[in-house]
Design brief:
single chain; 349 residues; alpha+beta; Endonuclease III, domain 1; Nucleoside Triphosphate Pyrophosphohydrolase; 15 helices; elongated; iron; hydrolase; HhH_motif; glycosidase
């Protein structure tokens, strides 16, 4: 079809030079696809290089500890991806003898691998004719063909998958999938695309009908929850501190943090002081409490906005199994806490 030919020609002329496009190795393609879920290419690329250097094979990744994986993942966010990555590596290495499934339906059975990632691996590694459908694909197809179906509905995913499959050249599905994703990432961008220079500017239905800004249609809006975290940085007479592991399900599972006082709103010294002495650290002799930074840090996650304050709490005792500042950097932290540590304790990176 003419659409596919024009798209692929554009791709060959404009594609970015990305490392995972130079291989059909399913391990590398799987790594890149997991990393690029909800992550920009520019942010994910250094992590791809770091992981492939530290863990050259799926066996190396499988044999690593979860903390090693989380530490290397630090700053990439959505840490459940890293935990699933590690578990899947162990499954592939131990149960499948290091061989990734070579078909879309079998790839779907891997932990952390959804329809999009399975389609990417199946087409890029094994040339299986299965379309990838992500936000870029929704945007390109909805605009070009003027499809007003609500992309937040499951039925719409099926509709766009069928359309993409119809357009896809069955003898080279990989290049079509790469091309349509790249076109959505570079040319048919969400806001203010440069339509006058677009290769489809004489055939795009949305451009002709002046609907580029309203497509694709997405009705469901994410509800954002505000949470208020007060991190308590203990400092004992030796200058050591204490951290804890987040073992509960939810954000930052299995990452480390300072002792946490969560409140229902931003609070001041009086509230923190009372809670520290009566509830959080009743067994310690508190020498002083002071706020470490003047402004509240707002850390935005996809579904939560965290309002974070850091408080230094000096105590008269020695913390059992206390950590000095140089030991802190060996643990995996949420990036907002790591940045605080790096700045406050002047750690070497």
């Amino acid at each position: 079809m003419n659409f596919s030919n024009i798209l692929i020609k554009w791709y060959l002329q404009n594609k970015r030079d990305l490392p995972w496009r130079k291989t059909t190795n399913p391990y590398h393609i799987w790594l890149s696809e997991i990393m690029l879920q909800q992550t920009r290419v520019a942010q994910g690329t250094p992590y791809f290089f770091a992981f492939t250097e530290e863990f050259p094979t799926v066996f190396d990744l499988a044999n690593a500890s979860e903390e090693q994986v989380l530490k290397l993942w630090q700053g990439l966010g959505y840490y459940s991806r890293a935990r699933n990555l590690h578990k899947t590596a162990q499954y592939v290495a131990n149960d499948l003898k290091g061989v990734f499934p070579d078909a879309y339906k079998e790839l779907l059975k891997l932990k952390g691998v959804g329809e999009y990632t399975a389609a990417a691996i199946a087409s890029f590694s094994y040339n299986e004719a299965v379309p990838v459908v992500d936000g870029n694909v929704f945007r390109v197809l909805s605009r070009y063909f003027d499809v007003e179906s609500d992309i937040s509905l499951p039925a719409t995913k099926k509709e766009f998958t069928e359309l993409a499959h119809e357009l896809m050249p069955k003898d080279n599905p990989a290049i079509f999938n790469q091309a349509i994703m790249e076109f959505g990432a570079l040319q048919c961008v969400p806001k203010s695309p440069d339509c006058p220079v677009c290769v489809f500017n004489d055939s795009c239905a949305a451009l002709q009908k002046k609907k580029v800004a309203v497509l694709p249609v997405k009705s469901k809006k994410l509800k954002v929850t505000n949470r208020f975290f007060n991190y308590l940085i203990l400092e004992d007479v030796l200058g050591n501190t204490s951290i804890q592991k987040r073992t509960a399900k939810g954000i930052w599972h299995n990452l480390y943090e300072f002792p946490l006082l969560e409140t229902t709103e931003i609070v001041g010294f009086d509230v923190v002081s009372k809670a520290v002495q009566n509830d959080v650290f009743p067994s310690y002799s508190i020498l002083s409490i002071e706020e470490c930074i003047e402004t509240t840090v707002i850390h935005k996650l996809s579904h939560q906005h965290l309002h974070i304050q850091f408080w230094k709490v000096k105590i008269a005792e020695v913390i059992e199994s206390g950590l000095n500042t140089s030991e802190l950097k060996t643990f995996p932290f949420p990036i907002v806490i790591y940045n605080f540590i790096e700045k406050k304790f002047e750690l070497e990176v």
